[in-house]
Each structure stands twice: as structure tokens, then as C-alpha cells.
Design brief:
This protein has 2 domains: about 200 residues, Rossmann fold (3-Layer(aba) Sandwich); about 70 residues, rRNA adenine dimethylase, C-terminal domain (Helicase, Ruva Protein, domain 3, Orthogonal Bundle), CATH 1.10.8.100. The longest helix has 13 residues. Helices cover about 40% and strands about 20% of the residues. The chain has about 290 residues and is of the alpha/beta class. Helix 2 crosses helix 3, helix 6 runs parallel beside helix 8 and helix 9 packs across helix 12. The strands form 3 sheets. The chain has a 7-stranded mixed beta sheet, sandwiched between helices.
């Protein structure tokens, strides 16, 4: 089977199957073999690895993954791509194709069934409209993930690795840095895709942390506080949190936080009562949620 990651090969497959790009799935296929090889290299795929690929498309990246990994599970939501994948990946006996929405897939169960419960590596050219829900869904599921190497919108990649006081700093930055160590592997211009997206892209590797960087008693509360702080980022932290319904406890109860309670916590932390959420570090958010 010839490699698919070129403009000519991709166009031929699209014509053969009369395939129409689905805007609702955010489909942009990679047509640069050099980038495809670099993604596999960035993910450090070896024969010891079980890889879950999200959104394989026509299988361009899947081919390279299959040649390096022990096994590949390709999860594709678009049922019209399944017959294409069955042809383009037919020569690889270590690839399993699943027609499903990744948000509905039990990664922990897949890991147990296909990889003996050992951590898996996720590799993906993610649809930009649903990047954050996919990444956060994988982290919050506490599935055994060794790393995620994903193509995302350039500004989203930047957001994942910035610190306090910058305009890109927000809930995603804090969540990613809580669960993983982010590192941008490369920037990818629009010309490397078919069809061309209207924005630049980047490949970012998120290496799962063995130990969390901060101690928290209630993870749900921590991220509820973080989300509330950035939902109204122009407000002071006290005003953003005041009476905001946040999740707390194992039962996921919604509780409200009184402004005075936030003031007391900020006073204990020796922080200004007029401070905004964008000024707090992950460690400070962890301490704040503990005090609340």
C-alpha cells in the first residue's frame, strides 16, 4: 500500500470514494509526509506501545503509527470514512478501527482489553471545534495515559503552556499543567492540510505526570473554582466566585461560595481582595480551593 500523506494520494482516495468533507467534524487531512513522520517521532512510538488515534480520517497518520507501534486503535466518528480506512489500512494486521465518538469511548476499558491495563499513548489530529472537550475528557476520565501528542490550533497549544499574567492564561492552561507536562513539538502551516484551515496549527506533546504538582483534597472543587474564576475573567476573583455554583465532594453537590468566604481565604493567603483569577498560580488555586 502506498503512503497516503501526499496531496496526490489524498485527492485520489477522495475522488475514488466520492468523499465530501464534513464541516461538522472539523475534517482537515494532513498531506505532508514529513509532518506525519515528525508526529510519530515526537510521540516516541515504539513496538511496546498501544496507540489510540483519534480521528484517523483516511489513515495517513495511521500508516506511520502502525509501522512503529505494537498496536493501533483508530477511533473514527464519521461512518463514511470506515470503508476507506478498511482499504487503506488493510495491509496492517495491528490496526483496529472503531466507528465511535471518542467522547463516548471508555479508554480505561480499551486499555484493559487491548493493553493489559498498561498506559496507552494517544495521538491525534484533533478537530479544532472540540479540542478542549476531548483533551479534558481524557484527563478527567483518569484513564491510564502515558502521553498525548496532538495537532491543535496554534493559539490553543500556546494557551496550554503559558503561566499567570498572560492573556492566553486560563482554565485550560491550569488543567493541562495539573495533569501533564506540555511541550510544543512543532508549528504546522495551513498548506500542510486538505482542505486548508484558516489558522496555523501546532503539535503539542502532553506527558502524563506520575505525581500531581499540587495536593488537593477535592479535585472537582479545584476545577470548579478555576472555571468560575475565568468565566468572568474581567471581574475580581471574589466577585467571579461570589455565589457561583461550584461542584464539591464525591457526590458532585453544587454549592455556592459567599464573597466574605473568598475574602477570608484571600486574606489568609496574603493576596489582595481585588486580585483577578489570571494572577493566581496553580499552587495558589489549590490552596484557595482547600480554604474554601
Amino acid at each position: 500500500m502506498a503512503y497516503l500523506g501526499t496531496p496526490t494520494a489524498t485527492a485520489e482516495i477522495i475522488r475514488k470514494y466520492n468523499f465530501c468533507f464534513q464541516k461538522k467534524y472539523g475534517q482537515n487531512f494532513l498531506i505532508d509526509a514529513n509532518i506525519l513522520q515528525k508526529i510519530v517521532a515526537s510521540a516516541e512510538i515504539t513496538r511496546e506501545d498501544c496507540v489510540i488515534e483519534i480521528g484517523p480520517g483516511i489513515g495517513s497518520l495511521t500508516q506511520y503509527l502502525a509501522e512503529s507501534a505494537g498496536s493501533v486503535i483508530a477511533v473514527e466518528i464519521d461512518k463514511k470514512l470506515i470503508p476507506i480506512l478498511e482499504e487503506t489500512l488493510g495491509d496492517y494486521d495491528n490496526v483496529t478501527i472503531i466507528n465511535e465518538d471518542i467522547l463516548k469511548v471508555d479508554i480505561r476499558k480499551l486499555s484493559e482489553e487491548r493493553n493489559g491495563g498498561r498506559p496507552v499513548k494517544v495521538v491525534a489530529n484533533l478537530p479544532y471545534y472540540i479540542t478542549t472537550p476531548i483533551i479534558m475528557g481524557l484527563f478527567e476520565s483518569h484513564a491510564p495515559l502515558q502521553s498525548m501528542t496532538v495537532m491543535v490550533q496554534k493559539e490553543v497549544a500556546d494557551r496550554m503552556q503559558v503561566g499567570p499574567g498572560t492573556k492566553d492564561y486560563g482554565a485550560l492552561s491550569l488543567a493541562v499543567q495539573y495533569y501533564a507536562e506540555p511541550e510544543i513539538a512543532m508549528n504546522v502551516p495551513p498548506a500542510c492540510f486538505m482542505p486548508r484551515p484558516g489558522v496555523g496549527s501546532a503539535v503539542i506533546r502532553l506527558t502524563g505526570r506520575r505525581e500531581k504538582p499540587v495536593e488537593v483534597r477535592d479535585e472537582r472543587l479545584l476545577f470548579s473554582v478555576i472555571r468560575a474564576a475565568f468565566n468572568q475573567r474581567r471581574k475580581t476573583l471574589a466577585n467571579a466566585l461570589a455565589n457561583a455554583p461550584v461542584l464539591a465532594g464525591d457526590g458532585g453537590r453544587h454549592v455556592t461560595v459567599a464573597r466574605e468566604k473568598v475574602y477570608e481565604a484571600l486574606d489568609q493567603m496574603q493576596l489582595s481582595r481585588t486580585i483577578r483569577g489570571e494572577a493566581l498560580t496553580l499552587d495558589q488555586f489549590a490552596r484557595l480551593s482547600g480554604l474554601l
